[in-house]
Structure formats: structure tokens, C-alpha cells
Write a structure and sequence with these properties.
0% of the residues lie in helices and 51% in strands. The strands form two sheets. Strands 1, 3, 4, 6, 7 and 9 form a six-stranded mixed beta sheet that branches. A four-stranded antiparallel beta sheet has the order 2-10-5-8, with no helix packed on it. It has one domain (12-122): Jelly Rolls (Sandwich). It has 123 residues and is an all-beta fold. The protein is globular, with a radius of gyration of 14 Å. A hairpin with an 8-residue loop joins strand 6 and strand 7 (81-86).
Length: 123
Amino acid sequence: MPNYNTQNPPYAIYPGDVVYPFNAETPTAPQASQQYAIGESYDGAAGGPSELRLDISYASAPTAVSVEVQSAVDDANGNYFTEYTSSNTAGESVKLTNFRGRFVRVLLNSQTGGGAITVRLQR
């Protein structure tokens, strides 16, 4: 996917959707991914917390890494804050509960060595 951009509206993800902010890519850190809007539930319920499943993997393990899942209420580059940080060089799978942002993106803050990164978000 492209880097953070000003596409209006950004792509939206709904319950059950899967997106790949980084898909076997080698971005130069620090690099933010494409942002995604958190769509309303199919039952029309707006607001409230959401759950996101995060899967991070590497083509070959880095010696050090920092990957951040960031959210924002308003889609502006300066409004994003860190919800979760991963420094696991083996990759990991986690479930983020009570995710209240209206927009989400992934930031590859740093990576030393290793291969391409794949980040999968499932709503």
C-alpha cells in the first residue's frame, strides 16, 4: 500500500475485513503506512471500542525493530498516537481491544537488518 496520504476519504475497514498496511515491503524507517478509516459496524452502531487483530512477520528476522500501531480521531498526520508497540524480532500476533480511534495506520519506527515486513490487520 502507499504511504500515509491525504486521500479523502481513506480506505475503510469493517468488521471481518483484512488489510495489509505493509505487504512484504522494505520501507525505510521511520515510515507510516496507508491509513484506514474504522467503519461503523454492519448493524449501524457508531462509536464504541473496536477490536483489531495484528499480525507481524518478517522475511528474515531483524536484529532490532520497533513497529507501532497508531490511531487518531481526526485523520491528520500530526494527530496519530501510539496504541501498541512491537519490538519482537520474531514477529507476533496480538489482539488489540478497546481500540477507540476512528483511523488506524502502522509505523515502522526502526528496523535493523532482517527482511521485508508484512503487517496484517483484521477488524
